[in-house]
Design goal:
Order of helices and strands: HHHHHHHHHHHHHHHH
Distance between the termini: 53 Å
Shape: globular
Helix content: over 70%
Number of helices: 16
């Protein structure tokens, strides 16, 4: 009799636990997706542990600079560094708190990669739904561990990158985009001010990330002011973004005062006109990344943008008319792009189509699905 009562009690407790779990999922519908992202990051970390980076290339700088800052050296003046000051001092603080161990950098990179995936999930969910956000998050994790996956061999990754300023800058840029999207969608909170602060911090990591964020915010503020036909709305938005700008002015101003702008921009930062890097490697670098004024390359970029816009509007039109037709068209486009990308002979042309599809969320969803399947 007692055993039967105990069994009934265990069954009741099991039912209560299931009901509580269901209530939790109902209360936080994104909890399962976030759990998948975190578990995926941990699994990839376990499969590729310590197979990252190369201290003989850029990664060695990422170890050396924070350690020297802990010894009292001043960035830019005593230690050469080509990016903003936020990341090396952040890494120095972590080394001071947890010790000078390689695991500190590994866990720092893993935290940044997971944070980027979670933020990308939030942005994707707000723009195009939970499935798109989850796919984008999984894709960025695969990219983060790319040096140890089956895609191709590379020493660059998010866990032990060529520059932690890039991964931290990416995290802050995604944070800026997250708050900017919340502001556009009319969500509650000081979203615009937080987006401006995130943009300012991104500018303190890698300038190109911060500049991109401020271009996005400027476009958003101008569009909002034009729609409302109110210059006051533009002025109010600029004032809300001012704290991030103030942080940048104070931080960079202090270093310019201690070291002088010429020494930082000319002798430390790679891409300043007249710097050693630009004199010796500038021509080859510009050719490699496509920063040349070559008519055919500029024409292909314009064609790429035109295809992206046409596909965007085309898919929106198909989705409004016929759902089945919309998905069939998306699948057909994705299969075509992937087929072209698989042919090495036409790889440059395929890259333009891939970039065109990446310009809108549904294209990213299908590309991500195929990349995930291929990586497995």
């Amino acid at each position: 009799m007692q055993q039967a009562q105990q069994t009934a009690k265990d069954l009741d407790e099991g039912k209560v636990a299931k009901l509580q779990a269901l209530a939790l999922l109902h209360k936080w519908p994104d909890a399962a997706a976030r759990s998948v992202i975190v578990v995926t990051a941990l699994i990839l970390a376990g499969l590729t542990w310590a197979h990252w980076g190369n201290i003989q290339v850029d990664c060695g700088r990422e170890l050396y600079v924070p350690a020297e800052l802990l010894r009292g050296k001043l960035l830019y003046r005593d230690v050469w560094y080509p990016y903003g000051p936020l990341e090396p001092y952040t890494a120095a603080v972590l080394l001071g708190l947890f010790g000078k161990h390689l695991y500190v950098f590994y866990l720092f990179g893993l935290t940044l990669a997971t944070g980027c995936a979670l933020l990308l999930f939030d942005v994707g969910e707000m723009l195009a739904g939970r499935a798109v956000g989850l796919t984008a998050a999984i894709v960025i994790l695969l990219q983060g561990f790319v040096s140890s996956t089956f895609l191709y061999d590379s020493i660059f990754n998010y866990i032990f990158p060529y520059a932690y300023a890039a991964t931290l800058g990416l995290l802050l840029a995604l944070l800026c985009a997250f708050f900017a999207v919340r502001h556009v969608l009319g969500r509650t909170g000081r979203n615009l001010m937080l987006a401006g602060v995130a943009a300012g911090l991104a500018l303190l990591c890698k300038p190109e990330f911060g500049v991109s964020c401020y271009i996005m915010l400027a476009f958003m503020l101008l569009a909002d002011a034009m729609l409302r036909r109110s210059p006051r709305a533009l002025l109010r938005g600029i004032l809300q973004c001012a704290p991030g700008v103030a942080v940048c002015i104070v931080s960079y101003g202090w270093f310019f005062w201690k070291v002088t702008p010429g020494f930082i921009l000319h002798d430390n930062w790679n891409f300043s006109p007249g710097s050693y890097f630009m004199k010796t490697h500038g021509v080859r670098y510009a050719a490699a990344v496509g920063l040349r004024f070559v008519p055919i390359e500029l024409l292909l970029l314009v064609l790429d943008a035109s295809i992206a816009i046409l596909l965007w509007f085309g898919i929106a039109k198909f989705s409004a008319v016929n759902v089945r037709r919309f998905w069939s068209v998306c699948v057909a486009i994705s299969v075509f792009v992937i087929g072209v990308a698989a042919t090495r002979r036409y790889a440059p042309l395929a890259m333009h189509f891939v970039l065109a599809l990446l310009a809108y969320p549904r294209g990213m969803f299908f590309i991500g699905c195929m990349l995930f399947i291929y990586s497995l």
